[in-house]
Amino acid sequence: MNENVLGIIAGIFTSLAMLPQLIKVIKEKNAEDLSSIMLIVLITGLSLWVWYGFIKNELPIILSNAFAVILNITLLTCCFIFKKK
User: Fold this and answer.
1) pLDDT at res. 84
2) Hey, what's the torsion of the CAs at 60, 65, 70, 72, to 10 degrees?
3) Within 10 Å of residue 30's Cβ, how many Cβ atoms?
4) Going by fewer Cβ within 10 Å, which terminus of the chain is more open, N or C?
5) 31-47 exposure pattern, b = at least 16 Cβ within 10 A, e = fewer
6) Which residue has the higher pLDDT, 43 or 7?
7) CA-to-CA distance for 54 and 62, rounded, in angstroms?
8) Where do the domains of the chain lie, and which CATH numbers do they carry?
9) Using CA atoms, how far apart are residues 83 and 25, in angstroms rounded to an integer?
10) For residue 8, pLDDT beyond 90
11) What is the number of H-type helices and E-type strands within the chain?
12) How much is the pLDDT for 85?
């Protein structure tokens, strides 16, 4: 199997890992059980992977992690919107 195809498939699975959580938060309009600090740390790490992907010119790393950044920023935004004060 081509290593880029393997990287893209792995990236798809890891990037989609938070999608069920995002759907649940949006559906229930409740983010009480989510840690915003964990999401900020995760977004920082994913962003660094995107930067690394650009340095190494590795499209699978760039695409999968950029998608995960967007997904997790959306989840973090929901965290601030739906958390009860």
Assistant:
1) 74
2) 150
3) 14
4) C
5) beebeeeebeebbeebb
6) 43
7) 7
8) 3-82 (1.20.1280.290)
9) 10
10) no
11) 4, 0
12) 61
Q: Which of 37, 44, 45 is nearest to 80 (CA)?
A: 37
Alpha helices in 29-58 (DSSP H): 36-56
Report the SS3 class of residue 11.
helix
Joined tokens for residue 32: 């009480």
pLDDT at 56: 96
Separation in Å, CA 72 to CA 55, 56, 59, 84: 23, 23, 20, 20
- The pLDDT of residue 13 is 92
Q: Is 77 within 8 Å of 24 (Cβ atoms)?
A: no
What are the tokens at 31? 């983010």
29-79 pLDDT, tens digit per residue, is 999 989 999 999 999 999 999 999 999 999 889 999 999 999 999 999 999
64 in Cβ contact with 12 (< 8 Å): yes
